[in-house]
Amino acid sequence: DQQVKQNSPSLSVQEGRISILNCDYTNSMFDYFLWYKKYPAEGPTFLISISSIKDKNEDGRFTVFLNKSAKHLSLHIVPSQPGDSAVYFCAANGNNDMRFGAGTRLTVKP
Amino acid sequence: DAGVIQSPRHEVTEMGQEVTLRCKPISGHDYLFWYRQTMMRGLELLIYFNNNVPIDDSGMPEDRFSAKMPNASFSTLKIQPSEPRDSAVYFCASSFGRFHEQYFGPGTRLTVT
To answer: What's the gap in Å between the CA of B39 and the closest CA on chain A?
Structure first.
C-alpha cells in the first residue's frame, strides 16, 4: 500500500540545469508535505515543506510545487550543483498519518 | 544541541541473537520515531512515541521487534531473535510536534548473518 510514490528511482542532470523530482500521493487527507535530502551514511535532513493551502513554496534554489487536484508535488532545484547529488524523499502528513516515498537518487554531473 | 544520536553505527550479528539499537533525541522534542530503510521498501515507519508514550506501533513487522522509551532522552529498539531479513539501516528521528519536520540520526546499519 504505497500511498506516496516516487516513480523515478534515479535522475541524472547536468550541472547548472534544472532538476525536477516528482512525487504522487493517493490519500486526499494529506495536507502537509515535506522533502528530505539524504547523503550516504547520513540520516535524511529536512529540505523544504509546503502546506495544502499553498501551491508553491520557495527557498533559494529549491521550490516545491503542489497540485492538489492531481495529488502531485514536485521539487525543482535550479541551478543544480554537484553537491545536490543525494537521495531525495518526499513525505506526506495528514489525518494522523504520515508516509514517505521510496526516494529518488539525483546525480548532478559537473 | 548535538542532534539525534544513535548507537551503534554498525552492528553485525548472527541469526538468533538479540540486537538492541539506541537513540538519544534532541532535547525538548516531544516526538520520537523509529524507521527502517531498505532498498525494496524505502523508509518505513516502525513506531513513534509522544512524550515517551508509544502511540502507533502498527509498522513494527513482528513480535520479534519491540521499542521502549523510558524517559525523554532515551529510546531503544530491540530485535529478538534477529533474522537475516532484518538487515537494514535503522533510523531514529525526533521532532517538536507530530507533523513538523523531523531530525534524523545518522542511522544504525544492521547486518544479520
So the answer is: 8
CA–CA separation, B42 and A38 (whole Å): 12
**Angstrom distance (rounded) from CA A43 to CA B27:** 18
Contact A84/A77 with Cβ under 8 angstroms? yes
The β-bridge partners of B101 are none
Please state whether A54 falls in left (phi above 0), alpha (psi between -120 and 50) or beta. Answer: beta
Task: List pLDDT tens digits, range A64-80.
Answer: 999 999 999 999 999 99
For chain B, how are helix, strand and coil distributed in percent, rounded to 5? 5, 55, 40
Contact B43 A32 (CB under 8 A): no
**Furthest CA-CA distance within chain B:** 38
Q: How many helices (H) and strands (E) does chain B have?
A: 0, 11
pLDDT computed for residue A107 by the predictor = 98
Cell readout for B94 is: 525526533
pLDDT at A44: 95
> Please, how many CA atoms are within 13 Å of residue B42, restricted to the half-sphere of its CB?
24
Q: CB contacts < 8 Å between A and B, how many?
A: 44
Measured between its terminal Cα atoms, the distance across chain A in Å is 38
User: CA-to-CA distance for A81 and A15, rounded, in angstroms?
Assistant: 5
Counts of helices then strands in chain A (DSSP H, E): 0, 11
Mean pLDDT of B75-101: 94
pLDDT in tens, B28-41: 999 999 999 987 77
Q: Coil, strand, or helix at residue B63?
A: coil
